[in-house]
Amino acid sequence: MIPLLSTIDQQMLDDGKNVVEEAGKQGIFLRLLGAMGVRINAAKHEDLFLKLNRLNSTREFTDIDFAGYSSQRKQVMKLLNQLGFEINQNALLMHGNARLLVHQTAKGYSADVFFDRLHYSHDVAWGNKQDSGRLHLTPFTIPPEDLALEKLQIHEINEKDIKDLIVLFTANTIGKSDGEGVINGAYIAETLADDWEFWYEVTGNLDKVRNFLSRYQSEGMVDASTQGVVLKRIDELTALMNDQPKSKKWQKRSEAGAEKKWWRDVEERSR
Hints:
The structure is a single chain. By secondary structure, the chain is of the alpha/beta class. It has eleven helices and nine strands. It is about 50% helix and about 15% strand. Strands 1-2-5-4-3 form a five-stranded mixed β-sheet. It has a two-stranded antiparallel ribbon with strand order 6-7.
């Protein structure tokens, strides 16, 4: 059960799910990501959302974020038009095939569609075609390992992102294959084994989650049992990352280490 949301947050959550469902009826793959994706994935952990004070304002969702395939871009645009969304033409010129910005003017919110990948501090990719991509693995949201990578790729990670990661690690076990309620740690390890910069970012952000988790436990926001579960799962993921053989590309980049910039600068967005 998802905690009580403000009227507009509930409307946005319902609309987000409706778009995914309507897309599916037309053979279009759209999945939710960002704060809404985490909320849906960890819906059974409403108590933790509340204890962590993940809601620090009257609004939880600033917009709706969708993942899609560029091969279905025209179909996505047609569907969103049918559902009452207005396409931002300026954003269309700026972002081309990579991203679509639309507005629900009557309801007072916007939505983003990211095609094939997130392109921020580091790339989180899910493919560009329905027969070879990752969006079929889970209903409604991108797979939990991609939700985790979406947060872990952020160079200047904030407490909202850290709290989302704590909830994700509480709601999902660490495994070596895809499945409901499972973060595919083997997929994360394989992805990072070819990209030292992304690996280094994720390693550092996992350490930050550990540190904040300790603070939250001392402040009574997380109980000892939850802390133990999350730490165990972070350790399991870290072990998979460390054990995964690294590519020559990874090894070559590792030689320069952190003396060379390892992240991409991006514009600040709410997440």
